[in-house]
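Reader question, answered in our methods column.
A reader sent in the components of a multi-part assembly and asked whether the whole thing could be modeled at once rather than chain by chain. We filled in our standard form and ran it. Here is what they sent:
COMPLEX SIZE: two components
ENTRIES:
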Amino acid sequence: MVKTGRLTRTSAAGPLLSPVTLLRIVLVLALLAIWELLARSGLLYRDVVPSLVRIARALGSLLSDGGYYYNLGVTAGEIGIALLIGGFSGIAVGLLLGGNRFLAKAFEPYLYYLGPTPKIIFFPVMIMWFGVGSESKIALGTLSCFFPIALNVAAGMRQIDTVLIRVGKSFRATTAQMVRKIYLPAMRHPIINGVRLGFGFALIGTLLAETKLSNKGIGFLIIQAYSTFDMPRMYAMLIVLFVLAIGANAAIGRLGGLDAIKRT
Amino acid sequence: MPAVSDSALLKVDAVSVRFDTAEGSITAVDDVSLTVKQGEFLSVIGPSGCGKSTLFNVIGGLLGNHQGEVRVGGETVSGPHKSIGMVFQEESTFPWRTVRDNVAFPLELIGMPKEKRSERARHFISMVGLDGFENRFPGELSGGMRQRVSLARTLASEPKILLMDEPFAALDEQTRLLLGDKVLQIQQQIKQTTLLITHNITEAVQMSDRILVMTYRPGKVKRIVDIDLPRPRTSEIVGSEAFGRYVAQIWNDLREEANRGLRDEEKHALQRGSGTA
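And here is the structure of the entire assembly that came back:
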């Protein structure tokens, strides 16, 4: 493992406050200031735009609430399982389509048509098949993340430098060796990008399903806060969700980032 | 000639390759026969478009739809053969593997234990003069060094025949000459039987025992030239009078073919131009 290259890359990204970071912070602060001004101006109904203090207080009580963590765990579990099922099947289908021109020609158009369709329209079907519990949410999350992952992996496979495949063949690598030692490492970037996209879609699918029909999970809590008009609590949950999504995305991205050094 | 075929390690017998394109069927390689003897360095030289790379792929077993036969040590080649090691023209190192793991790749495929293949890899890395770079990634090396990694990787599989397709084409002239020295040195050191595909006359004369000159499309054997220069050779030989004579002789053969190729390309460009106008 070469450490030096990796270090220069990460340190290049930041002395602690680069102009870019500074600008980002300024933007967030400005938005917060505008929010607070609006809240205090009384121009809007104060429960629709509650003051930051009220949101902070709601955030505090949210984070000290054990029931919240239970629901967070439920949702995280659903997303995790959805990403696992959708990810593995997506990668498998992507490899198949990327490696076989005939199959790609026959089936890839379907993926392109179905990919952008909002998967929530299948939720009624999922409820009938899998019930109202976590299973139907997992099903919708799986369905949501399968398409971007499969399409990314298929496209990534076609972008592999063909000479590397010829090298493998010239050394008489078996199919399993080709996949393990050439295709997968050469496709690490598109795979991780696909999983990253897929994570976003799984998150959307799962939460959306929870808001429609459920009795647990973050989506359920958000819609519950909305229907009891507890806006500070709802905003607090959105903030937590936002932060968690950013964190998870960065974690997946980091897996891909490691490889970037070796390829340059 | 039974005397020759007895010692022939590689025998290409009446190989022809035809491609179907939009403009009709093109004969890329037409009835090419050649033999490479044990320990011999043979170069195949020809202008662009003479089917050199096609021939390379046929001999390497990567292209199946040919007529005629390729035999290695008496066995007919149908698919990549274990006795043939290929070095490609393009950048072909694995960017996600260190130099050591790149070179150890063929050993990994045959299941050699880690310790042993590291040791073997080090031996061949040293042979191409890359000691100390074992833990670097290809991205950290120059183009010439990466090509040496590819060479070491192929040598590590210990092929009976080293088959190279313009391995130095993408490099600058000086790097090319110095790398040529390296190849000569290795060739003399391990008596590696080698078939080099090239369009570079200097390179061919510098390294070869024999040079096979090919015609422009369809690629046929035009002439076989014995290079009777003393060994061991280095790039210094480039300055000698005998060297100059060989280069002139081969250029004489090639010029006509290269000219034909050029005219053909111009004609195609014109046709395309008038087609779109």
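What stands out: The radius of gyration of chain B is 19 Å. Chain B touches chain A at residues 60-62, 79-80, 82, 84-86, 88, 90-92, 94-98, 105-106, 108-109, 135-137, 139-140, 157 (CB under 8 Å).
Send us your own complexes using the same form.
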